[in-house]
Amino acid sequence: MKNYLIIIIITTLIGIANTIYLSYCCITKKNVKCLFLPDKMCFKVQYSKYSSTFGIPNPYLGLTMLVAIFVFTILYIQSLVPFEIIFAIISAGFIFSLYFTYIQAFVIKAFCTWCVLSALIFTILFIVSLIKMIGSSMMLEIYL
């Protein structure tokens, strides 16, 4: 298996674990444990009006995207779907992560460890998948 696929799978599994924890806290209405930051910062982010998008809690959206990335990556390995589908989902997650990181920094003025981890995960996924896409384009040009 190619290195970029291993990175995508491992990073996605870490992201799934992260969003399962956040989803659990959302379902049970428990406060997330804020690692490396004061608990009040995570509390402020967790209960802000920006913690949902179109009425859907952000952890559910993140979990859905990461499970989709994982499933489509497995399907891609089996040559059942094109990589562009994976890249599109990762790109959407990355853009959302950038937006929400901006919201945390400049609107809420607080950061949540788990949200920062999620943004880092989507950044890694985006960089790896972008390199794959650019590499594919370059190979296409070489063969044309």
Question: Any overview of this molecule?
Answer:
By secondary structure, this protein is mostly helical. It has helices spanning 3-28, 39-46, 58-77, 83-108, 113-143; strands at residues 52-53, 56-57. Helix 1 (3-28) runs antiparallel to helix 3, helix 3 packs antiparallel against helix 4 and helix 4 (83-108) runs antiparallel to helix 5. It starts with a helix and ends with a helix.
Could you give the topology of this structure?
Layout: H1 3-28, H2 39-46, E1 52-53, E2 56-57, H3 58-77, H4 83-108, H5 113-143
Antiparallel strand pairs: 1-2
As a whole number of angstroms, the C-alpha radius of gyration is 17 Å
How does the helix and strand content classify structurally? mainly alpha
Q: Count every helix, treating DSSP H or I runs of 4 or more residues as helices.
A: 5
- Strand tally is 2
Terminus-to-terminus distance: 26 Å
- Please write the string of helix (H) and strand (E) elements: HHEEHHH
Enumerate the spans where pLDDT stays under 50 for 5 or more consecutive residues: none
